[in-house]
Specification:
Blueprint (H helix, E strand, L loop, with lengths): L1 E3 L13 E7 L13 H17 L6 E2 L1 H17 L12 H7 L6 E9 L2 H10 L1 H7 L6 E8 L7 E9 L6 E3 L5 E2 L3 E6 L7 E5 L14 E5 L5 E11 L2 E11 L2
Parallel strand pairs: 3-5, 8-13
Antiparallel strand pairs: 1-2, 2-4, 4-6, 5-6, 7-9, 9-11, 10-12, 12-13
């Protein structure tokens, strides 16, 4: 197990603080109900992915298991008053993910006390170590946890966990935004650089011909309003890997 960067715990009463600990190829906590609703998490993810895109880095797929782990840690920080990467039992992000059944290859976590989500993103960008995690191309999925800071009317506890699993290559529509106003959408296919061929489908049954792999593609959604799913299959090392993503079209 290798790790670098990091801070231990920070006293919550000292105001604006940001903590970091990064693990690569390391080790996960029991289930915990996330308090942030799906709409808020999607908005946070879309903003983070837009920032990554502005720096030429691929988008990440929001994962509910990782978000559960991130929200759990945000609640721990709210309860203990310590900005730390360890929970009350001493478990690290990698341990909390594995205990939830997420078998990681790589994981990183960034934390902040900030007035808004946007302020947290700006603070992470200004920190060299946090920026490395925030803009790392090594991850494919992420989870977000946000909690109001106790005894404060203007601060949030923000936690983002970044991760990658072996053999999981997410398809991401429009930076993982939940809604689009346009039928023409942009796709990002993780793993395309490793594939010999890829193909797309609107229903997971009727497929376009196999084609030369590209990470970035365009796709035309059906004209009907509502939720639409796009499927992708990748040929990698003699195996076929499948992924899908859904977006709501509201003209």
């Amino acid at each position: 197990m290798g790790y670098h960067g990091g801070s231990g715990a920070c006293d919550m009463r000292k105001g604006w603080l940001v903590g970091l600990w990064l693990w690569a190829y390391c080790l996960g906590a029991a289930g915990y109900d996330a308090t942030e609703n799906a709409t808020a998490l999607a908005a946070y993810t879309a903003e983070l992915n837009a920032l990554r895109a502005a720096h030429g880095v691929p988008p990440l797929k929001l994962n509910p298991i990782i978000s559960d782990a991130a929200q759990y840690q945000a609640e721990v920080i709210a309860e203990t008053g310590q900005l730390t990467h360890h929970d009350k039992e001493g478990r690290r992000p990698s341990q909390r993910l594995r205990e939830r059944g997420y078998e990681i290859q790589a994981v990183g976590e960034i934390l902040a006390f900030a007035p808004t989500w946007g302020d947290a993103l700006e603070a992470w960008l200004r920190s060299e170590q946090h920026r490395k995690i925030l803009l790392s191309p090594d991850y494919r999925e992420l989870g977000v946890g946000v909690r109001e800071k106790p005894n404060s009317l203007s601060a949030k506890i923000c936690c983002v966990v970044f991760a990658r699993r072996e053999g999981v290559y997410p398809l991401i529509i429009e930076n993982d935004a939940p809604i689009t106003r346009s039928r023409k959408v942009k796709l990002f296919v993780h793993g395309a650089a490793l594939a010999s061929e890829i193909r797309l489908s609107a229903d997971g049954q009727n497929w376009q011909p196999w084609r030369k792999p590209q990470s970035e593609l365009e796709w035309q959604l059906p004209a009907t309003a509502g939720e639409h799913t796009v499927w992708v299959e990748l040929k990698i090392g003699g195996r076929i890997y499948r992924a899908a993503d859904t977006i709501r079209y509201e003209p």
